[in-house]
Amino acid sequence: MLFTDALIHSPPDKSARADILIEGERIVKLGKIITPEGIRTYKNKIVLPGYIDSHIHLLEYGLSLLFLDLREATSAQEVLGKISSFAAETADRGFV
């Protein structure tokens, strides 16, 4: 199937006009495509990808474990208490 002249939106904030050729359940080509059978014109319509996120951010998660999360603290006293506890728990690292 061919979708023509579609406005393709791909995060973060990138859009482009192109044709999309789909075979089975896969996108096989993007860009200006010579039109085969099964054409659908999507002029001035927005096409969004399937938003299938097949990756995870292990590095970012791992790094988040190194730092103190103060987002739930509701007072300066609570922030100081959390920092003090975190510093004691991680003293062997040499940094807070």
Automatic annotation (TrEMBL):
Gene3D superfamilies: 3.10.310.70, Metal-dependent hydrolases, Urease, subunit C, domain 1. Pfam families: Amidohydro_3. Residues 43-91 form the Amidohydrolase domain. It comes from the Bacteria. One of its GO terms (molecular function) is hydrolase activity, acting on carbon-nitrogen (but not peptide) bonds. Signal peptide: none annotated. This is Amidohydrolase family protein. It comes from candidate division WOR-3 bacterium. The lineage of its organism: Bacteria, Bacteria division WOR-3.
